[in-house]
Design goal:
The chain is of the alpha+beta class. The protein has 2 helices and 16 strands. Strand 4 and strand 5 form a beta hairpin. Helix 1 packs across helix 2. 28% of the residues are buried.
């Protein structure tokens, strides 16, 4: 029987795989999956604290005083790494995530976690290699493979609630130039907003727009055809909706919480008329 000579390519690929796995292990080892607890107190005003790198989730572990209601008097924003309280809420909060050595509390063994991380990362690397030519939009956090939204949104249009348990609304019907107002929630098409990939707030095929790109306090907010300009880009910070154009907040004019009250841009101050819940 003729013996087959060894395959140098196979040995090379094996060495590369082992080296890659070792590199992954070295990367994964410093991160530990464990919980941390922090306390944050509000005496009636808005108070925030930076979340440590690696935080994936925050839960209210214990209410210490006041009324702590998620997305009303406390909440968190992972994109800006911020935990906040307001309206007198004081609580102890449990942070879950993969924290670096210098950010962790307590002692625990990370050998099993490191092995699991290596396996998970290696699997993701193989999957990414296999699908490298697929649509890159699938890597976006708001991509929805199963949705039917063809206007650039995530496919999860829903109401945005504000003060007085009323909703953000496009007055009358969705049309260019129609003003954004606060109104009683009715789940109509003019109250169903969808975050677009570029930070747009889409409603009925149009975008929430700062009229004329006005940067001043009191600038009117309307529905307008989507054009990708900065006056149509928004971001959530805590429970505020901020314009990426100038950092000002979406605000109920004059702080009057009533149906039909117009929305505008105003300097952020954390008041009730600038708080929104998705």
């Amino acid at each position: 029987m003729t013996r087959q000579p060894p395959n140098p390519g196979a040995r090379s690929r094996g060495r590369q795989l082992m080296a890659g796995t070792l590199s992954l292990a070295l990367v994964a080892t410093p991160a530990l999956a464990e919980d941390q607890k922090v306390e944050l107190r509000s005496s009636g005003d808005y108070v925030s604290q930076r979340l440590p790198d690696g935080t994936r989730e925050v839960e209210l572990d214990r209410q210490l005083s006041g009324s702590c209601r998620f997305n009303r008097t406390w909440g968190y924003d992972l994109s800006n790494k911020e935990l906040w309280v307001n309206g007198g809420c004081a609580g102890r909060f449990r942070l879950s995530g993969d924290f670096k050595d210098e950010e962790r509390s307590g002692n625990s063994s990370n050998a099993g976690i490191a092995v699991a991380a290596v396996a998970a990362i290696a699997g993701l690397a193989l999957l990414a290699s296999h699908n490298r030519d697929k649509d890159k939009d699938r890597d976006r956090p708001d991509y929805n493979d199963g949705g039917n939204n063809n206007n650039g949104g995530s496919g999860y249009a829903r109401q945005i609630r504000g003060a007085g348990n009323m909703c953000m609304d496009i007055s009358g019907r969705v049309r260019e130039g129609a003003p954004a107002i606060l109104y009683n929630c009715n789940n109509g098409d003019n109250q169903r907003f969808d975050w677009g990939r570029g930070g747009e707030l889409r409603v009925g095929g149009l975008c929430l727009d700062v009229a004329g790109g006005n940067r001043d306090n009191g600038a009117q907010v309307i529905a307008f055809r989507c054009n990708g300009d900065d006056n149509q880009r928004w971001q959530m910070r805590g429970n505020q909706i901020r314009s990426r154009m100038n950092g000002k907040c979406l605000d109920v004019r004059d702080g009057r919480i009533r149906a039909g009250q117009p929305l505008q841009l105003w300097d952020c101050h954390g008041g009730e008329n600038q708080r929104w819940w998705w």
